[in-house]
């Protein structure tokens, strides 16, 4: 009897344990009901995650495009502030209006520096060789038993100077490679040679050539003047037109033609080396 009771209790214990295990399994696998608020929070979180993923993907696609738009490294080297070049051309000189003279063609040529002072202003010192040629005609006469005879003497003077103009240049306008400039400034000249060539036409038609004489001892060695004009630039080519006014005169105090002053008109072309 005891054995039967013990056996019954054992069977009952085993059965209850099996039922408890099945119940636990059902509780674990059975989904827990979700409230409406939880569902809304979950949906918002899901949308935020999806939006972040899409934004990250778009940024990844833009990276190669942005890199391709990175500008190339620019040349930060400053523009050269000093230029150098040369000019050459012809000039036409005559004396101031108080003297009846004629202009004759001479030569002008030399070198220049162009220092940019900032903005549209620059300073341009030059060193030029200038040959100024002028001509004067004199009416001469002499008497003889046959009467008074008239003739004409012609004096052609060539003055050779080393000139140092100190010019201030204003850049007016630039259109692509084309530029326009105005300049003005003082000029200091040193006379290095001076010659006079005399000829005569006599009344009977005879022509006399008296040759060339050095007249540098009759002239001022140092001269001061004013230079002004304009310039056209095309790339590295230069075209210059200028007028030079002598201020202190070319003659020394004991010269017979005291008061002569040169007036020189020049045309030049040049090239800017850098």
Report on the structure:
There is one protein chain. The protein has a domain at 82-148 and 160-191 and 220-272: Porin. 22% of the residues lie in helices and 55% in strands. The chain has helices at residues 2-29, 36-68, and strands spanning 82-95, 101-118, 121-144, 147-175, 178-201, 207-214, 222-234, 237-246, 262-272. It has an eight-stranded antiparallel β-barrel with strand order 1-2-3-4-5-7-8-9. The longest helix has 33 residues, at 36-68. Residues 2-10 and 18-29 have low confidence and may be disordered.
SSE map:
Elements: H1 2-29, H2 36-68, E1 82-95, E2 101-118, E3 121-144, E4 147-175, E5 178-201, E6 207-214, E7 222-234, E8 237-246, E9 262-272
Antiparallel strand pairs: 1-2, 1-9, 2-3, 3-4, 4-5, 5-6, 5-7, 7-8, 8-9
Strand content: over 45%
Q: What profile does the largest beta sheet have?
A: 8 strands, antiparallel, barrel
Low-confidence segments: 2-10, 18-29
What integer is the average pLDDT?
A: 80
Helix content: 10-25%
Give the termini separation.
130 Å
Number of helices: 2
Spell the H/E element sequence.
HHEEEEEEEEE
What's the count of strands?
Answer: 9
Strand order of the largest sheet: 1-2-3-4-5-7-8-9
CATH topology of the domain at 82-148 and 160-191 and 220-272, what is it called?
A: Porin
**Radius of gyration over all CA atoms, rounded:** 52 Å
Multimer state:
single chain
CATH architecture of the domain at 82-148 and 160-191 and 220-272: Beta Barrel
Anisotropy-based shape = rod-shaped
